[in-house]
Structure formats: structure tokens, C-alpha cells
Write a structure and sequence with these properties.
The chain is of the alpha+beta class and about 325 residues long. The protein has six helices and 21 strands. The chain starts with 7 loop residues before the first helix and ends with a strand.
């Protein structure tokens, strides 16, 4: 039986002999190394491509979800949100009036165009306009005026002046409120003007009454023939203003033309009296009856109030007679 040697030198010599017999390890060929590298690179590339496909798939799913969400929101808004409410129509523009939409470029207004809740309208320094409401209320817009239709019964006046003629607005559901930074004005069947200034408003009452409310909630009533000035701090002052004062002339200039064709003379006289702050006085019941029977033809477009009155009367058997400035006296001609 042979036993292993415990001599270190003997063991070393044995290892050397063994290694000589085994020989050096063969190195792989260049082609083999190239094949291995190609296989490893292909496997790595496949893993990268798979990860990219997964990321693209997730991105497409997210994008598709966003598109679906937008479509759902669009259709939901179309069917859930209330339709735009028309509150008035543009009946006259002298110059240029624009719709100053906050989410779009300003667009020009035109006669016959609808005025909707939420819209902002503006005139420039040489333009005026007139709107009409279903109730018969007439709204005149002075130079350099900007306002927003906040609701079907409320207008927010930012700058300039508005003239309101509400001959039939006696019911509470016909009342219109004009809001300004210094306070608000609500009419009670009347003709009046609201004009804004830097830190106050000026309310002129031509006919009827108005309710002026300050920002602190205090109420004040304005009567025909009064001008009220209300400051942003709530201070109120009053002065007098006649219905025929030249201050009102701009409202007549902004008024739409009265179509006299097939109208009675009485209706025309009533219109021109209201627009000029006067009232008609007939010399006799016979003269009043004649004015009711006369039918007019033609047009007064382009004529001022006095010229239109003279032109119309010249085609009838009635004429004016001398009266105080606040009256239009009508009598039968000899």
C-alpha cells in the first residue's frame, strides 16, 4: 500500500510534473469570441427593445386615456352646461362696437346681433350704440363705454355711460340693475343715465325713480329731475337736472331711427316727445283725434329731432304752436 508523502518539496515536484503533462489551456479562437460577443449583444439589444416597447405601450395607454377624458368632458359640457342666454339685440351702431371676449380676440358687433349673458361690449371714443330687450327696454351706449352682461337682469358697467329707457318696466321681473365699483342702480320704470368716474358714479333721472345702493348697502331713491353722485366711500350728493337739459342729447343721438312708415302721427309725436324729454299738448280733442287718424309714409332717417318733427307735420293738417320748452304743442291748421 502506497502512502502519500508529507514532504513539501516532494509535493511541489509532483505538481510541476502534473502541470507539464496537462499543458496550457487552449485560448478560444477570434471567430468564437466574435460569435459570443454577437450573441451577448443580441440578447442585450432584445432586452432594451422590450423595455422600450413596454414604455411606449404605457405612454400610448396614458395618451389614449387623456383623449377619452377630453372627449367625455367636451360632450358632458355640451349636454350639461346651460345654453347661452340671449338678453338683448343690437339695434343701432354709430361707429364701431366690439365684443371684447376674454378668451378670444375682439370681434366687431353688428346690427341684429344677439347679446348673450357673459359677453363684454365696448365702444370707442367716437362710437355709440343701442340695444333693445324683449321687455321693450332700450339701452343706449355712450362713447368710450365698456360693460359686461353679467345676468339677464344685471349689467356691470366698467367705464363710460349707459342710458336706460324702460317705458314698460314696472314689473319687478323687468327691472335691470346696473352695477359699478361705487354702487348699483335699479330702475322702477324710468329713463335715467349712469355714468362712471374715477371713484364715483353719477346717476341722472329723467323720468320715474331709481334705487341707488352704495357698496356698504345703504339705499337712496332718485326722483325725476335729480342728479345723484355716489362716491366709492358711500357719500351721496344731489342736484337738479331738467328733462330737456343738453346732457341728454347724446342718448337721442344713440337712439335707433324711428320707422314712421305706416305709423300714426300720434305715435310719432309720443316717440319724439319721450326722446327729447318733453310731452305732447293738443290744443283740442279734435286735434288729438286727427293725430290718431293720420297715417305717415316715408322716412326721417338722418334728421335731428326738430327737423324730423317739422318735416312730418308739413305733410299733415296739424302744426306746432308756441309752448314752454318742455311741451310740444299741436293744433289743427286753419
Amino acid at each position: 500500500m502506497t502512502t502519500a508523502s508529507t514532504d513539501p518539496e516532494s509535493n511541489d515536484s509532483s505538481l510541476e510534473e502534473l502541470l507539464r503533462e496537462v499543458g496550457a489551456r487552449d485560448e478560444p479562437s477570434a471567430d468564437a469570441m466574435r460569435d459570443v460577443r454577437a450573441a451577448v449583444h443580441a440578447e442585450w439589444q432584445a432586452m432594451v427593445d422590450e423595455r422600450r416597447r413596454q414604455r411606449r405601450s404605457v405612454a400610448w395607454r396614458i395618451a389614449a386615456s387623456l383623449v377619452i377624458a377630453v372627449l367625455i368632458a367636451t360632450f358632458a359640457r355640451r349636454f350639461v352646461e346651460p345654453a347661452p342666454v340671449q338678453v338683448a339685440s343690437v339695434v343701432d351702431i354709430d361707429g364701431r362696437m366690439t365684443y371684447a371676449d376674454k378668451d378670444a380676440d375682439a370681434r366687431a358687433g353688428a346690427v341684429g346681433q344677439a347679446v348673450l349673458v357673459g359677453e363684454t361690449l365696448q365702444t370707442d371714443g367716437s362710437s355709440r350704440a343701442a340695444l333693445t330687450f324683449p321687455s321693450g327696454l332700450s339701452l343706449r351706449v355712450d362713447h368710450s363705454t365698456r360693460f359686461t352682461v353679467a345676468a339677464n337682469d344685471r349689467i356691470e358697467l366698467t367705464s363710460g355711460a349707459l342710458y336706460i329707457d324702460a317705458p314698460s318696466a314696472n314689473a319687478s321681473n323687468d327691472a335691470l340693475t346696473i352695477s359699478t365699483p361705487a354702487g348699483s342702480v335699479r330702475h322702477l320704470g324710468t329713463q335715467y343715465e349712469v355714468r362712471t368716474h374715477a371713484d364715483n358714479i353719477q346717476v341722472s333721472v329723467r323720468e320715474g325713480r331709481v334705487l341707488v345702493t352704495s357698496t356698504n348697502g345703504s339705499n337712496n331713491t332718485g326722483e325725476a329731475g335729480q342728479m345723484l353722485r355716489l362716491s366709492a366711500t358711500g357719500e351721496l350728493t344731489r342736484s337738479t337736472l331738467t328733462a330737456t337739459d343738453p346732457q341728454w342729447l347724446w342718448a337721442l343721438d344713440a337712439a335707433p331711427d324711428f320707422d314712421i312708415d305706416n305709423q300714426t302721427l300720434a305715435a310719432f309725436l309720443q316717440w319724439i316727445a319721450r326722446e327729447t324729454g318733453r310731452h305732447v299738448v293738443y290744443s283740442s280733442p279734435k286735434a288729438e283725434a286727427a293725430a290718431t287718424e293720420v297715417k305717415l309714409r316715408g322716412s326721417i332717417a338722418g334728421l335731428d329731432a326738430d327737423a324730423a318733427l317739422a318735416a312730418v307735420l308739413s305733410t299733415t293738417q296739424l302744426r306746432r304752436y308756441r309752448t314752454p320748452d318742455e311741451e310740444i304743442g299741436i293744433e289743427l291748421a286753419d
